[in-house]
Amino acid sequence: MINVMQPTLGKEELDAIKSVFDSNWLGKGEIVANFEKMYAEHLGTSVNHVLSTNCCSEGLFSSMYLCGIQPGDEVIVPTLSFVGAGNAVCVNGAKLVLCDVDPRTLNARAEDIEKVITPKTKAILLLHFGGVPCDMDKIMPLAKAYGLKVIEDCAAGVCSKYRGHALGTDGDMAMWSFDAMKILVCGDGAMLHFKDPEMREKADKWLYFGLESKSGYENSVAQKWWEFDISSYGHRAIMNNITAAMAIEQLKKLPLFMEKREAVHNAYNDGLGDLNWLDIPLPLEEGSRSSFYFYHIQLKNGKRDELARYLREKGIYTTYRYFPLHRVPYYGVEGTFPNADYATDNTLCLPLHQSLKSSEMEQIIEEIRKFGKIYG
Ligand SMILES: *Cc1c(COP(=O)(O)O)cnc(C)c1O
Fold it and tell me: Which ligand 1 atom sits nearest the alpha carbon of residue 156?
């Protein structure tokens, strides 16, 4: 079976993990700090804007507290979002307000967001679909005009850029995932970015029990190191030296990963671009860069499910992301989302990972073209 996603791991990661074993300190330590420093550099920012955590979903959940979202506040989420985004809003007692998306990019646009803004709206939780940037030049002024916080789910945008700067650095807060199905993988882990270093400080405590450390404490209890104080009922969500050691090696390999992923993207464009029964992804906007996390085609003949099954029979696994939250009854959100419905019923994500062989690429393209001859 040709996988739709797959990690690329090697000796470098194993050696790095071994050195953590040898050090006898598996917990959060110097290696995590090094990874944070390297990732800040990767984003083109400084370490007082970033903080690691144990997964990207934790970043979504924590964004509500960190952005001051209160019960009853409304948070706008594109209906094509990761399930964790919907849960993050609801579990905090805020009201989940869904918006429609662009039918081709599957990203929410400023006009989609503006339609559902009310006096109770406090934040927008954006998703950059497949690492392709949303139109931040239109969304940020809209958020400013209404005084809304902007949270960017950059889970799959590890190398994405918008207008020349790292994607995720426009909004108040952003998060990247390093789980097993992403591009940079370390088992589980994530990085958070904060526009305001003070929010980072708040997050640092929130992600470790709300513990007050160091500041002003040395004098009073330095002799009794078992005493503590807290400033919030925080979580416990930190990276450790094992996952950080892996993440550092993966970070070094990112340029290679991107080269490979872009080549796959271009090969699909070349191999499928002339077929009139499907749409290939739109070209990127000037100054934007994708991480090539997904390659999504959209069938114009209503035969998406048939194609998915046809390919699976040929040993080619495909999928669709993200199932719309408005079709999940438990969220209880009403409304019509015609573009998201179109995307959900006609979009297919093709295999895209660093280990895809050119023979496999050719096979996938050939099978899709064959399917077109039968059903196109
Ligand atoms: C994978 C993913 C997440 C969750 O990441 P974890 O690190 O697994 O919690 C969130 N949002 C999007 C868009 C994702 O693809």
Answer: 15
Cα–Cα distances (Å) from 8 to 154, 186, 319, 353, 361, in that order, read 20, 11, 20, 8, 17
Cα 298 to averaged position of ligand 1 atoms, centre (Å) = 23
Q: List pLDDT tens digits, range 295-354.
A: 999 999 999 999 999 999 999 999 999 999 999 999 999 999 999 999 999 999 999 999
Domain count, the chain: 2
Q: Which of 201, 220, 251 is the last residue of a domain?
A: 251
**213-239 pLDDT, tens digit each:** 754 445 555 678 888 999 999 999 999
- Domain membership of residue 5 (yes or no) is no
Whether 339 and 102 have beta carbons less than 8 Å apart is answered as yes
| Containing structural domain, residue 196 | 11-251
Share of the chain above pLDDT 90, in %: 95
For 367, the enclosing helix (H) or strand (E) is helix 358-375
Q: Looking at the structure, do residues 244 and 272 belong to the same domain, yes or no?
A: no
State whether 264 and 299 are in the same domain. Answer: yes
| Residue among 52, 54, 56, 322 whose CB has most ligand 1 atoms within 8 A, to mutate | 56
Q: In the prediction, which pLDDT does 220 show?
A: 57
Domain boundary among 251, 281, 310: 251
The span from the CA of 208 to the CA of 205, in Å, is 5
CA distance 45 to 169: 9
Q: Is 370 annotated in the active site?
A: no
